[in-house]
């Protein structure tokens, strides 16, 4: 983030189990749902804030935003018809620290959030988390037959830099497919 010092090791350690506020508004075109905040995100208070995370570049490259937004500009998302929440609110160093029970409870919470905000489409970023949270073991990336309430449902690749299966252009292509077909 421009002009902002990265969190120290102590600040990252103190961020464990912290939560960060959702960025939501009623009637969004797309509600993006991450797995859970990283320690970096929790320390800064911004979604997808860890350097190397490809969420913000993918949003821009796919045409969702007219320019590359920084994580500290997350509050601009609703003006583009976009929002962000997480399946699990608590921050961890790695998503694999979450239990299946936490992910399932997060899926139930997401259903309530969707019912309240009524987005057109929900895009869950992380196929493995989606499979566990919603009990769909063979789900693949892309549009799903299921819906959450009235919202269409898409599963996108996890934009974390730790996801070596997808490079930035691959992630952006999946985001673009959602924008064009969602």
TrEMBL record:
Residues 21-179 form the Uracil-DNA glycosylase-like domain. Pfam families: UDG. The keyword Acetylation does not apply. Its EC number is 3.2.2.28. One of its GO terms (molecular function) is hydrolase activity, acting on glycosyl bonds. SUPFAM superfamilies: Uracil-DNA glycosylase-like. It comes from the Bacteria. The keyword Lipid metabolism does not apply. Keywords: DNA damage, DNA repair, Glycosidase, Hydrolase. PANTHER family: G/T AND G/U MISMATCH-SPECIFIC DNA GLYCOSYLASE, G_T MISMATCH-SPECIFIC THYMINE DNA GLYCOSYLASE. This is G/U mismatch-specific DNA glycosylase. It comes from Actinokineospora xionganensis.
